[in-house]
Amino acid sequence: EEKWDFVLVSDIHAAGSEKETKRKKFLDELSKKGFAIKKIEDKKLFYGVRAPKQIFQKYQWLLRNPDSRPQNPDAHRDVPATTRIRIVNFILQNTVTSDHENLHDLRKKRVFEAAFPLHEKEEVREFLKERWARWRDIFSRQPIEKIRCYFGEKVALYFAWLGWYTCLLGFAAVAGLVVFVAGITVFNSSQVSKEICEANNTIMCPLCDQKCPFWLLSDTCTYAKVTHMIDNEGTVLFAMFMAIWATVFLELWKRQRATVVTDWDLYRWDEEEEELAMELINNLQHEPQQYQHSYFRSTVILLLVLVMIAVLIGVAHGLVIYRVVATALFTQSDLEFLREQANTMAVMTGAVLHYITIVIMTKVNRRVALYLCELEKPRTFSQHENSFTIKIFTFQFFTNFSSLIYIAFFLGRINGHPGNYVRIAGRWRLEECHPSGCITDLFIQMAIIMLLKQTISNVMEYLIPWVSHKLHKKWQRPKKRRVMLGEEEEAEDPCKRQWLSNYQLSEVNAFSLFDEFLEMVIQYSFTTIFVAAFPLAPLLAFCNNLFEIRLDAIKMMRLRRRIVPRKANDIGIWLQVLEAIGILAVIGNGLVIAITSDFIPMQVYKYTYSPCMTENSTGVDCLTGYINHSLSVFRIQDFEPHTKVPEMLPHLEIRECRYRDYRNADDYSYTVQFWHIFASRLAFLILFEHAALCVKLIAAWYVPDVPQSVKNTFRVRKHNNLRKELSTMEYHTEV
């Protein structure tokens, strides 16, 4: 069976048409370079192309390792299939016709519809299909070396990184589960929850202006218990643990990566040298592109990025407005359940809407990032990929986290107070936090988004190519051959069935692997940045990744065309992105504990205002009286003039109500306790972040990036090469 490096697919154009002429010119250019071309006609035109051996001999000679290979252009080995495909793809993409059009231009003009390497029927592929790309192998070790042999180093490093990440995620998942279970054990024993559940005489101010009544604090007993199940001392320890975990994970990955690429003899591989070599192989007269930088262009792109970020923050504001309006509408509903659970329902429906905006804005962000990259005009594909990575991650970060940042740090803190509420359009009040804190809102939001992303998104990611593949197979089933002259010979062509079956698979592009990386890095952000509010995030991520590895494997092996192999010796700029996320995780978790959580106010009360400190009481819980201390008093006659005073509770004449804040009862100014807690929050934030960053730096120093075994390998190799050179010199001197 003939082997072909690439297949080009084209519609059947009319003879003499512009598209037919452009196609012929491009194929003629390939023929001049010595490419063999085979044409098969079906409903489309298929052109198989095979590069001449001389191209690969030039590649081996230019990129030979002088330390280990003979200095003889005739002494060459067969290049691996992944290298053949990579070189041929480079030549195809950089072949220019007399009209100054390359393959990318011709595809945009629909001269060619597709260009792809073939899934070959070879031993490695069959092994990967049977031992890797199956759901039953979900707990099996990945054959990274086999993946490298079939998909190239870049794909192999992605799966090596994903496997390593999932493995270490298991430790974080166990720690998070322990913290969560510990919270459940104190479900009924928290002093703060007990006070809320027993507060039968504490009358709270209405949650809206129209139909909302006064309510008793004890009505929210269960909500308070759930809040203190999440918000406890274990949360602080877990946040610190995750900051250390993120650092250790990256440092251990650097060691693992160094070991892997050393085994592949790529540790000191030079990407720029390979790029220059392939440019010369494609065109001997090629002049290297110069590095260029335009401050004007960079300024324009920076301004456009800031505009896009402003748009994404505007989308987050839209979600805030939805929650405010939804709360108002739910409280006026005829359904008693909606009226009673208005805040919770607004949070949950807001989280679903947030997920929908993430799905929509992901497509918008991609288009904007690609457009900005075209404006930037990067010199090489690698620079283009790095630039695109930074932009799309920035946009995706704001898309995914703007709403969470509002809930974590602004919800309930910018809404004013009874008698002077902050309103949207002068009508709708901003939301308030529950008297037991806002951290449950953040927990619900993160839980819903992560569950939806890991179920619906993954199901669609698998089902769409799977259904498409099945439909293609059904439509393209071979019909009974009619016995007609000329058809028999065509039907017997062994390449036709293979080319057609590959063409019917889902299309891949240069950023197909990028999409998988982006998905995992966003997940890593969810797992680390706000993990203090959602300790189950590592467990959900761990379970998801067990399936994600096999899902990606099945897509690559069975449902998609073969991805163009790329050489690499690390995961590229993603490592810098992960390190930035590690720093953001320290800042984010510090802010969650200092601002979102009630940990600091409770500690301030416990060690300053509690009965243990003021009355030297030893027989009571030191948090006794905390809830009463954290609620301010509002006089009903001070309601805003246009506010409808709600109905009174039965058998009670209400003159005052309580609300969550630290304000004086006479002029509603902040109390001394407020400033005491504010200073304590700030002090804790500075202390936590400095301690966590110091621990990260110590962990980074303690775990070397490169294992000693790798350093010793290179030292022995240098020693042997020098000894060999010295022996050769002495031999020539004696002769």
Q: How many beta-strand elements?
A: 12
Spans of at least 5 consecutive residues whose pLDDT stays below 50 are: 66-76, 478-490
The main β sheet shows up as: 4 strands, antiparallel
Overall radius of gyration: 32 Å
Strand content: 5-15%
Q: Helix/strand-derived class? A: mainly alpha
How many helices does DSSP assign?
A: 26
Mean pLDDT across every amino acid position = 85
Backbone shape = elongated
Secondary structure: helix percent? 55-70%
The neighbouring-strand order within the major sheet is 2-3-1-4
Terminal Cα span = 52 Å
Please provide a written account of the structure.
This protein has 735 residues and is mainly alpha-helical. Among the domains are: 6-118, no CATH class; 708-734. The chain contains 26 helices and twelve strands. The chain has helices at 18-32, 53-62, 81-94, 103-108, 123-131, 144-151, 153-185, 191-197, 221-230, 233-263, 271-282, 295-331, 336-340, 342-376, 381-409, 439-475, 487-491, 494-503, 512-528, 537-559, 574-596, 599-609, 611-614, 626-630, 672-702, 708-734, and strands at residues 6-10, 36-41, 45-50, 114-116, 203-204, 215-216, 416-417, 420-421, 423-424, 428-429, 631-635, 656-660. The strands form five sheets. A four-stranded antiparallel β-sheet has the order 2-3-1-4, with helices on both faces. A hairpin with a 3-residue loop joins strand 9 and strand 10 (428-429). Helix 7 crosses helix 9 (221-230), helix 14 (342-376) packs across helix 16 (439-475) and helix 15 packs parallel to helix 21. The longest helix has 37 residues, at 295-331. It is elongated and about 100 Å long. The two termini are 52 Å apart. Mean pLDDT is 85; it is low at 66-76 and 478-490. One of its GO terms (molecular function) is protein dimerization activity. Belongs to the anoctamin family. Keywords: Cell membrane, Glycoprotein, Membrane, Transmembrane, Transmembrane helix. Residues 147-713 form the Anoctamin transmembrane domain. InterPro entries: Anoct_dimer, Anoctamin, Anoctamin_TM.
